[in-house]
């Protein structure tokens, strides 16, 4: 795709961006404030994208301190200097708190040091304090230059040549405490660390019937505490934005004892380090422990996770997020004019967007102000729709009202898993069951897919039956690829026998096909004239109507972890190329995104046809690479990308053509991509999207109550998914036109727009549609 933006000259991205650059040819990149996993991926993307468009890129070591000190702290980066850092946590260029930069004298020194290297473009990766400092620096820039000229440190020509400073920010913070972006770099990785610890603690807690109080980071923001509580099904959570009501001590103890009475052998309480009560007084983990021991006499332990949350390798999500933001930041710098305000590159849905930096900073400060003034509802609202949604979902799933307080609907809602297993399916079932019970429905579990449905393997499932399901991989209900077409009569009989009023299907492409078959059978079988909704759950991420599927993130992390180990092996032996086969059917999502997250040299996918010349070109590219200090290669291949260019064929071709330059190995990842404990993203996504599906079912049943209404319209058979920036219900009838049934993929897939990213970062010439890059938008508090 060549650049087709009206502002762009015809031709490649490189030419267009070189045209934009003009005389502005130097970019400085720094990391500041607290470190976060994924910062290195952002640094790598900035350096490589900058070099790709012909700019000089400089590392500024030790954050603003390095900028003030100058000298060896500001050094030019090359392509190889950011090799092998994608999988490394922290930041290789260092980060430091800098008092000197807070003074005008310090900023004057920093400006002088930048000008010595002609740097007038800054890419700052840090929190709101770091970004606010960068904006102040930008505002003062012309005044600083004039002062340097008066002092004789620069001439007047330099004042004109370097007249303005461009600043673009990326938020690196594990707390996810910056308004304007769905996720900050490092948050997902921190959740991985927290969930790993919670999963490990749960086994020991269960053995001894213990209560564990876990303290997680988040001095001013409860995001980590809230999402980890949602992802592990914690009994209680304490957040700075939403303090417990007065009398919480007694309520919590009642809740813990009720759970024990239901034969639950452990209790998990999660506390954000900045947790407070309604009077803004701190609630500490020790205070909670004392309360539980004194009131209930339970064996209670405190675990403070601390800096473990900042450490370790970045997750696949953080690597991809940081890479996308880094490339977008370079393009934003190149497009900037003297009138462009400092912007921050953010994530909205699955889109990279640019927002005015100070609008985001102001809103972030407004949250803290609301908490200080005890306007806690405003604080939750200002955090954004996602935070408020998480909080409401947690409350619905964690606290069960007594049965006599739940108005009964006399409706039976069935839940079924269909297709191959996907990590996160159990979290989705748990969520559906509990929301359904809270809404007054009787919940039925269908075991072993449509096969089990036809055989009558249907049982009522209760609130406590799904306790502890969130962290379990696979499918506890059992799942099969069998479609309902052959068993329509039997399934209709079971629907009638069990008086099923609505159906929730959790599964992959087979679930989608099954939903179409049930919908088509409505004319023959009136039992199917009930609300039916599907929640996508498949590692392949190939369901029409949704950009993401439950299970795909876990599979992506499995691929990324394996690739990291393989790259390490290749680095040790030198001159070795690995060919790795991923799952996905005809859908190249796992191969493409795995390649981006692991820093692969190529990824072969069905959606982008290739021939022997492309394979030859890749071999030549790897041959050239072996002449550098990076003497290893990584190539991913989607399992069905080509009928003839199989993994064996590519392995043999590479082995023959690379003879004497590199040797070759192959690895088929297979079903390990479907197994394992679900990632925090899949637990959270499965929980939230399934709760949303049940809300839709409840609304539909409410609509028909007392009227004996039959559901025959298309809008009563839907797929629920994330599309662009929204969670939407789409009728399956409408989705048929968007589906390639032969290859079991949607006709349009959003992630194909990221193909160029992997190619550029692997040093291939690639082009990019500039019209897909972000425009400066404004922050909408409730639509974040």
Q: Helices and strands in order, then pairings?
A:
Blueprint: H1 13-21, E1 26-31, H2 39-52, E2 56-60, H3 63-69, E3 74-76, H4 104-115, E4 121-126, H5 128-150, H6 156-161, E5 166-171, H7 187-208, E6 211-216, H8 223-232, E7 236-238, H9 248-261, E8 267-272, H10 285-296, E9 300-304, H11 316-335, E10 343-348, E11 351-356, H12 357-372, H13 376-383, H14 385-398, E12 412-418, H15 425-438, E13 442-446, H16 449-455, E14 458-460, H17 488-497, E15 500-507, H18 509-520, E16 532-536, H19 552-573, E17 576-582, H20 589-598, E18 602-604, H21 612-625, E19 632-638, H22 647-657, E20 663-668, H23 680-704, E21 717-723, E22 726-731, H24 732-735, E23 739-740, E24 745-746, H25 755-761
Parallel strand pairs: 1-2, 1-4, 4-5, 5-10, 6-8, 6-9, 7-8, 12-13, 12-15, 15-16, 16-21, 17-19, 17-20, 18-19
Antiparallel strand pairs: 2-3, 10-11, 13-14, 21-22, 23-24
Helix pairs in contact: 2-11, 3-4, 4-5, 5-12, 7-8, 8-14, 8-23, 11-20, 12-13, 13-14, 15-23, 16-17, 19-20
State the shape: globular
Q: Count of helices?
A: 25
Q: Architecture of the largest domain, according to CATH?
A: 3-Layer(aba) Sandwich
Uncertain residue segments: 1-11
Q: What share of residues is helical? A: 40-55%
Number of strands: 24
CATH topology of the largest domain: Rossmann fold
Rg of Cα set: 27 Å
Biggest sheet architecture: 7 strands, mixed
CATH class of the largest domain: Alpha Beta
Question: How many discrete domains?
Answer: 4
Cofactor: Mg(2+)
Function: Catalyzes the phosphorylation of D-fructose 6-phosphate to fructose 1,6-bisphosphate by ATP, the first committing step of glycolysis.
Main location: cytoplasm
Protein name: ATP-dependent 6-phosphofructokinase
């Amino acid at each position: 795709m060549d650049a087709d933006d009206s502002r762009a000259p015809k031709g490649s991205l490189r030419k267009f961006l070189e045209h934009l650059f003009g005389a502005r040819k130097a970019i400085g990149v720094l990391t500041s404030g607290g470190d976060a996993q994924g910062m290195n991926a952002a640094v790598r993307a900035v350096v490589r994208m900058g070099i790709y468009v012909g700019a000089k890129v400089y590392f500024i070591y030790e954050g603003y301190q390095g900028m003030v000190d100058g000298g060896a702290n500001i050094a030019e980066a090359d392509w190889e200097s950011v090799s092998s850092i994608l999988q490394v946590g922290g930041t290789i260029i260092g980060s430091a708190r800098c008092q000197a930069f807070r003074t005008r004298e310090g900023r004057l020194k920093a400006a002088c040091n930048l000008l010595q290297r002609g740097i007038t473009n800054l890419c700052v990766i840090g929190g709101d304090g770091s970004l606010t400092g960068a904006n102040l620096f930008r505002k003062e820039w012309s005044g600083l230059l004039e002062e340097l000229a008066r002092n004789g440190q620069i001439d007047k020509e330099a004042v004109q040549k370097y007249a303005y400073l461009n600043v673009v920010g990326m938020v690196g913070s594990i707390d996810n405490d910056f308004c304007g972006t769905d996720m900050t770099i490092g948050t997902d990785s921190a959740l991985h660390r927290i969930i790993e610890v919670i999963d490990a603690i749960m086994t020991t807690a269960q053995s001894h019937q213990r209560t564990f109080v876990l303290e997680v980071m988040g001095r001013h923001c409860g995001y980590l505490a809230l999402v980890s509580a949602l992802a592990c099904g914690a009994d209680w959570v304490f957040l700075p934005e939403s303090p417990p009501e007065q009398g919480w001590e007694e309520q919590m103890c009642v809740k813990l004892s009720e759970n024990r009475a239901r034969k639950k052998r452990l209790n998990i309480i999660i506390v954000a380090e900045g947790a407070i009560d309604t009077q803004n007084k701190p609630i500490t983990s020790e205070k909670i422990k004392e309360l539980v021991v004194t009131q209930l006499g339970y064996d209670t332990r405190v675990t403070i996770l601390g800096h473990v949350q900042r450490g370790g390798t970045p997750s696949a999500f953080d690597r991809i997020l940081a890479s996308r933001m880094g490339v977008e930041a370079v393009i934003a710098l190149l497009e900037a004019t003297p009138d462009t305000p400092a912007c921050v590159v953010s994530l909205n849905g699955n889109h990279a967007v640019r927002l005015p930096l100070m609008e985001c900073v102001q809103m972030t400060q407004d949250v803290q102000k609301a908490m200080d003034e005890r306007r806690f509802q405003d604080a939750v609202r200002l955090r954004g729709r996602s935070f408020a949604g998480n909080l409401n979902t947690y409350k619905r799933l964690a606290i069960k009202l007594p049965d006599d307080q739940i108005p009964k609907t006399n409706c039976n809602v069935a839940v079924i898993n269909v297709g191959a297993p996907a990590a996160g399916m159990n979290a989705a079932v748990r969520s559906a069951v509990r929301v359904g019970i809270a809404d007054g429905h009787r919940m039925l579990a269908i075991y072993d897919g449509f096969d089990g449905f036809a055989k009558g393997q249907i049982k009522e499932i209760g609130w406590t039956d799904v306790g502890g399901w969130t962290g379990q991989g696979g499918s506890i209900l059992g799942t099969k690829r069998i479609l309902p077409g052959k068993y329509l009569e039997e399934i209709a009989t079971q629907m009638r026998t069990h008086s099923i009023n609505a159906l929730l299907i959790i599964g992959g492409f087979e679930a989608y096909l099954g939903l179409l078959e049930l919908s088509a059978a409505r004319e023959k079988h009136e039992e199917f004239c009930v609300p039916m909704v599907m929640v996508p759950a498949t590692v392949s991420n190939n369901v029409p109507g949704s950009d993401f599927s439950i299970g795909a993130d876990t599979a992506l992390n499995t691929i990324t972890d394996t690739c990291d180990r393989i790259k390490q092996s290749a680095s040790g032996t030198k001159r070795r190329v690995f060919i790795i086969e991923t799952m996905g059917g005809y859908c190249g999502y796992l191969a493409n995104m795995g390649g981006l997250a692991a820093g692969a040299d190529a990824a072969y996918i069905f959606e982008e046809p290739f021939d022997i010349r492309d394979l030859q070109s890749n071999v030549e590219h790897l041959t050239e690479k072996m002449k550098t200090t990076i003497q290893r290669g990584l190539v991913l291949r989607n399992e069905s990308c080509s009928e003839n260019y199989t993994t064996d064929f590519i392995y043999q071709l590479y082995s023959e053509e690379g003879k004497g330059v590199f040797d070759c190995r192959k690895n088929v990842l297979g079903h390990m991509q479907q197994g394992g404990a679900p990632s925090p993203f899949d637990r959270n996504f499965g929980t939230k999207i399934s709760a949303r599906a049940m809300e839709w079912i409840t609304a539909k049943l409410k609509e028909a109550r007392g009227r004996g209404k039959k559901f025959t319209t298309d809008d009563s058979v839907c797929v629920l998914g994330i599309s662009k920036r929204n969670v939407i219900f789409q009728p399956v009838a409408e989705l048929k036109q968007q589906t390639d049934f032969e290859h079991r993929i949607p006709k349009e897939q959003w992630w194909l727009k990221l193909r160029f990213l992997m190619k550029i970062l692997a040093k291939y010439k690639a082009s990019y549609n500039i019209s897909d890059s972000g425009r400066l938008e404004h922050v909408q508090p409730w639509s974040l």
